[in-house]
Amino acid sequence: MQWTLANHFPPTRSRVRKAVLLPDQNVLVLGGFKEESKDPTSTNKWGYMNLSDLYNPLTNSWRRLANMNIQREYHAISILVPDGRVIVVGGEGASRNEPQKSMIEAFYPPYLFRGVRPELSNFNKPTFGLGENIRFEVHKTNALSKVVLLSHAVMTHFMNSGTSRFLELDFTQNGNLVSAKLPNDPVLLMSGWYMLFGLVDDIPSVAQIVKIEADKLVSSNQSLIAINNKIQISPNPTTLEYGVKIEMNLSKGGRVKFILQDVLGKKVQEFSFMEMGSGNRMFSLPLNGLSAGVFFLSTWINEEAIGTEKIVIKQ
């Protein structure tokens, strides 16, 4: 995994922090401060532009769209809302001197003009744990092409307030009944509020708001789950020298596995034990060769994920 520089799309601009990920996987880039003095693009007296550009990461190409009504820079905020529009407000005044009255405007991306949008309804519930199925009905289409889970996020400055997740879910469709499977990896799917879109090609539905509780994990093999899901980790925070000890009560024997991942989801260590019976168990995990930082330790029994805990390692 590595970063690469994508195609440039003039004019060169700075203070652009309104890059919004859309449900069709394109990125909408708004406004900014013009850095090229010879470029003819109009600005206000502070050098802010009102450009709206669409970046396609699959083709590494740009497309210029309709201008915003107001020139804005990075003090603005932007947010994708469930109906598929992008709301923008702020960033109109001089640097560090916002006007008393900020003007709000809504952008309609191209996918809102391309055809009939699928409609989602009758969701089985509003809150889900890892590994669960989200079931719902779909209308105005015979076949969805994608089911996308997109985290809520507000963009401003250099920050994204959300969990920054775009997940294409595995799903099945039988008539108008759809069942979409959530992943069971809490690093991939973090707790929080998400928008679930159904798409036909690149035309999204209005999103359904769902809540994900990553500390709740559904397993298909309940007899192997630690009793009451009680997994005690100590000490936490810990040190490289001491490691961690894990205490759990097994309802049945089997292979117990612990996987340690960094904050990017990369596996850095794995520990495996074979337990022949039920009852209370204590496991000691050394943390040799790691650096101080935040990690996530997931527990598995016979390849069934039980839960994940955050571990802080100090120097």
What is the beta-strand fraction?
A: over 45%
**What's the tally of helices?**
0
Into which percent range does the helicity of residues fall?
Answer: under 10%
Shape: globular
Unreliable runs, pLDDT <50, ≥5 residues? Answer: 219-229
Let me know the number of strands.
29
Arithmetic mean of pLDDT: 84
Largest sheet: 6 strands, mixed
- Rg is 24 Å
The run of helices and strands is EEEEEEEEEEEEEEEEEEEEEEEEEEEEE
How many domains, as an integer? Answer: 3
- Our measurement of the CA-to-CA distance between the termini, rounded to an integer number of angstroms, reads 27 Å
Query: Structural class per helix/strand content?
Result: mainly beta
Give a short overview.
The chain folds into three domains: 101 residues, no CATH class; 99 residues, Immunoglobulins (Immunoglobulin-like, Sandwich); 93 residues, Macroglobulin (MG2) domain (Immunoglobulin-like, Sandwich), CATH 2.60.40.
Notes on the structure:
- With 315 residues, the chain is mainly β.
- Helices cover 0% and strands 47% of the residues.
- The strands form seven sheets. Strands 11, 13, 16, 19, 20 and 21 form a six-stranded mixed β-sheet that branches. It has a five-stranded antiparallel β-sheet with strand order 9-8-7-14-15, with no helix packed on it. Strands 23-29-28-25-26 form a five-stranded mixed β-sheet, with no helix packed on it.
- The model is unreliable at 219-229 (pLDDT under 50).
